[in-house]
Amino acid sequence: MNIEDSHSAIPDGRVLEVTTTTGCVIGCSYCPQDRFAIRQRSASRAKHLHLDDFKRCLAHVPATVDISFAGYSEPWLNPACTDMVEHAYASGHGIRISTTLVGMNERDLQRLQALTFRVFLVHVFDDGTHMNSRLVRGKYIDLVRQLVNADISSVLFMVVGEVHPDLVEIIPEKALIRSRPHRIRAPEVDPDIVEVGQPIAGAVTCADERHHRNLLLPNGDVTLCCMDFERRHVLGNLLRDEYQDLFEGPTFCEITDRMAGKEGFLLCRMCECAGSEAATC
User: Fold this and answer.
1) Residues 60 and 230: beta-carbon distance below 8 Å
2) What is the pLDDT of residues 36-76, one digit of tens each?
3) Mean pLDDT computed over 112-132
4) 147 or 203: which carries more pLDDT confidence?
C-alpha cells in the first residue's frame, strides 16, 4: 500500500495532540509534570519541538487527522507554537487549542484570529489552590481580556476550582466550564482532590476513544494518549514512521489485545474514561 492509499484509509475523528515542550511552569497540583519530564529527558535531549521537526512529523499525518495543541505541558511555552498552528492549518488539518495563554503574546493572538478552530479552550487560572497564580499579572490579564473580546467564535473557558479573583470579572460565565482533575494524572494526591478508583480487570473500553487521540512529543515519539505521562505506551516516532504505522506496530497491537482482555500492563485499566462497558468521561 502506498502512502496516498494508507492516508485515504484513515477514518475521520482522529486527533494528534502536540506536546511542544518538556517542562511546564503552570504548576497544576493534579498534573504529574515532574514524572513526565524525568521520563522524557531520559529518552531524549530535545526540550522543545522544533518547527522543522514538527513539519517533518506532520508530513506523515493525513489531513483527516485533527491537530490539537495541548499535550503534557503549556503549548505556548514553545516560542514556535503559533508557527506550528499556522502550518498545520495551512496543511488542511482541523485545529484544536487547549492553553492557559501563558507564553502567548498579543501578536500571537492577532495571528490566531485569522484562523478557524474546532475548539479553542482556555484553561483559566484558579485562585491559587491548584495552579501557580503568580503568573496572573498585568500583561497576562490584558491578554485574557483581548481574547474575550476577540472574534473567535469557538472560545471556551475551563476552570478547576474557583476562578482567579483578577479574572472573575473578565471571563464570561456562559462560556465557563467547571471541571475536576482526572484521577490517573495524580493518583498520589489527596482523594478530596482526585477520586482514586480500582484498576479494571478483563476487557476494557475507552469512552473517549483515546487510543486514537495520540500524543506527539518533542523528539517525535508518539504516546498512546493524554494520560500516558510516563511514556508507558510509545507507538512509534513520526520523524521516521508514517501515521498508519503507529497502529500496525507491535505496541498498538499489544494494547488492542490487552483491551480485549489479554493479561499484561495496560494504562487504560486505571483511567476514569475506561470501563468494562462504554461510559461517559
Assistant:
1) no
2) 889 888 899 889 999 999 999 999 999 999 999 998 999 99
3) 95
4) 147
Query: With contact defined as beta carbons under 8 Å apart, do 210 and 193 qualify?
Result: no
- β 66-69/213-216 pair status: unpaired
Residue of 94, 80, 184, 164 whose CA lies nearest to 122: 164
Question: What is the DSSP secondary structure assignment for residue 170, as one 8-state letter?
Answer: T
SS3 267: helix
Question: What stretches of 180-265 adopt beta strand conformation (E)?
Answer: 205-206, 213-216, 221-223, 234-237
Model confidence over 82-118: pLDDT tens digits? Answer: 999 999 999 999 999 999 999 999 999 999 999 999 9
The predicted structure's pLDDT at residue 151: 83
End-to-end CA distance of the chain: 36
SS3 per residue for the chain: CCHHHHHHCCCCCCEEEECCECCCCCCCCCCCHHHHHHHHHHHCCCCECCHHHHHHHHCCCCCCCEEEECCCCCHHHCCCHHHHHHHHHHCCCCEEEEECCCCCCHHHHHHHCCCCCCEEEEECCECCCCCCHHHCCHHHHHHHHHHHHCCCCCEEEEEECCECCCCCCCCCHHHEEEECCCHHHCCCCCCCCCCCCCCCCCCCEECCCHHHEEEECCCCEEECCCCCCCCCCEEEECCCCCHHHHHCCHHHHHHHHHHCCCCCCCHHHHCCCEECCCCCC
- In degrees and rounded to multiples of 5, residue 254 shows phi and psi of -65, -40
**CA distance linking residue 178 with residue 123, whole number of Å:** 10
C-alpha cell at 259: 483491551
Residues 6+ apart with CB under 8 A from 187: 194, 196, 270
Residue tagged 522543522 (cell numbers): 52
